[in-house]
Fold:
Amino acid sequence: MPRPPGRRNIGAWISVAPSGKLRLGFRHAGRLYRPVTQLEDTPANRRRLEAVRDQIGAEIRLGTFDLGRWFPSLARPKLVIPDDRRETLGSYYARWIERPHGRASRVRDYRSHWSTYLHHLSGVALADLSVGHLSDLRDQLAAGGGKDGGPVSPKTIRNAINGTLRAMIRDARERDDRAVGWPFPLLRWERYVPATQPVPMTHEERDRVLAAAARYRWRGSRDPAATTASVHAYLATLLYTGRRPSAAAALRVRDVDLSNGVLVFRASRHLDREAPPKSASEQRECWMPAPLREILSAYVPRIGDPSGHLFRGADGGPLSPNSLRHAWELRLLPAANVAARELYGGTKDTAITLALADGEPSLLVAERAGISLATLHRHYARWMPRTPREAPAPAELTHAKKS
Structure:
């Protein structure tokens, strides 16, 4: 409310501008200032502005008021308080994406998800975001919102909404104190069923791939023999541990303990940048199988710098997993007469299933691959040896034969 007539206000007050917007009033250094906000004259907005009024008034009375800090533009001072109802997802994303987000691949995914799928929500106000918007977007993408106009896979839709959009709204609430809802727990998802099942190599196929890698000569390499040895050891690490290519690429010479047969995975290297791994379970020590230990024992002495990267590319720098995908798919697998499969999926499935087939304990296999026991059981149960308790009893077999 305006100050009572005839009473001098030492501090600040709230009034309504001719436009209907709320404004502050105060005197400073012999001048009257009445900056207009972007808030409509409502009881809720008045309560929001009262906190600003009280702070400015207290500073004026104490003589500590700094006009430049509150109003950088002294020519036409105007106080703009963020109005969460007017800020849209699109305008907030433009600022949010410029912040550091850790892994380079995460930033790449954030940008890709927004430009391809989430931009449909650009005009939605932050304060208005609801489960209805999420549900409509999911249905729209599933019906034909892909890059080529086709349907988007359920996994990609879930990654975009529950990954990228969820992270952005979380930061809006927790880092920027925006008044925005949290509708994600209300969105129901169907149980995800992987489109493909593990297709591991046999022992013989794995050995043929490693033999092909040991023979392959890299064109344009500064030292072809050194590059061949590095790639051979790198692929052996993937095929015997099941780790992500980015995790193996971040290994350094000091992370290899040949005397105890231990590998220490500390980080992840992707898009020429290193960052912590995607999950805490991937950041641990693991035992090396005997064949891998033998391969690394012959390879590690080639590397002089103990603090340097263990695996080197054709240019002499740290090996990049992306630089191997072409050779993996078009050179090494055909040379070994092995069916096509992805670098990560093929090596991970092979390492896990062959270790289980060789009788290694499930916990040891899971820790080496950097996954949980639950994940191991969910995706690789068919390759796990059955315990005596799980084996059918003789009476069950007899009953089965009679039936």
Observations:
- The first strand starts at residue 12 and ends at 16.
- Confidence is low (pLDDT under 50) at residues 74-81, 388-403.
- The CA atoms of residues 142 and 165 lie 17 Å apart.
- The two ends are 89 Å apart (CA to CA).
